[in-house]
Amino acid sequence: MLREIEALRQQLQTYHLQNSWGLQRFASSPEDIRFYTSLLGSVCIWMSPATVKASLPHDFDGCYNNTQVVLDCTELQCQTPSSLLLQSEVFSTYKSHCTFKAMVGMSPHGTLTFASALYEGSMSDKEVFHQSGLHHS
């Protein structure tokens, strides 16, 4: 049963990637996923303001009723590089270990609408925002 569920999950992921990006010959191997992720870089899937407004949570009524996206950075712990220069680039003073940082955007009702590429953990959230190109979208 678990094997069937996993196969179904992979088929759904492949179908989603094929339809979202027009990748007709997409295979869901880890190599292909890494290739397309590096090719696509940041992923930005904006919803129309009407769609966001129609599903706006009650907590956003009033002061936040025009919110389209909620942005935040997240950090993923990585192995400590042997190079001191690389260590200084990926070391996060906030997390006190080596990390990569990404900016994610969620619609108010919780749908992922933006995911940036990964950046050095030492980079500020503001710099990740500028590097992601999101402010040009």
Features:
137 residues, alpha+beta, 2 domains, 6 strands, globular, DDE Tnp4 domain-containing protein, HARBI1_dom, metal ion binding
Blueprint (SSEs and pairs):
Layout: H1 2-21, H2 30-40, E1 43-44, H3 49-54, E2 70-77, H4 84-90, E3 91-92, E4 97-106, E5 112-115, E6 119-120, H5 125-132
Antiparallel strand pairs: 1-5, 2-4, 3-4, 4-5, 4-6
Domain DDE Tnp4: 71-136
Cofactor: a divalent metal cation
Protein name: DDE Tnp4 domain-containing protein
3D architecture notes:
- The protein is globular and about 50 Å long.
- It is an alpha+beta fold.
- It is 38% helix and 20% strand.
- Strands 1, 2, 3, 4, 5 and 6 form a six-stranded antiparallel β-sheet that branches.
- The mean pLDDT is 79.
- The chain folds into two domains: 1-40, no CATH class; 41-136, no CATH class.
- The longest helix is centred in the first third of the chain and has 20 residues, at 2-21.
- It is built from five helices and six strands, in the order ααβαβαββββα.
- β3 (91-92) and β4 (97-106) form a beta hairpin.
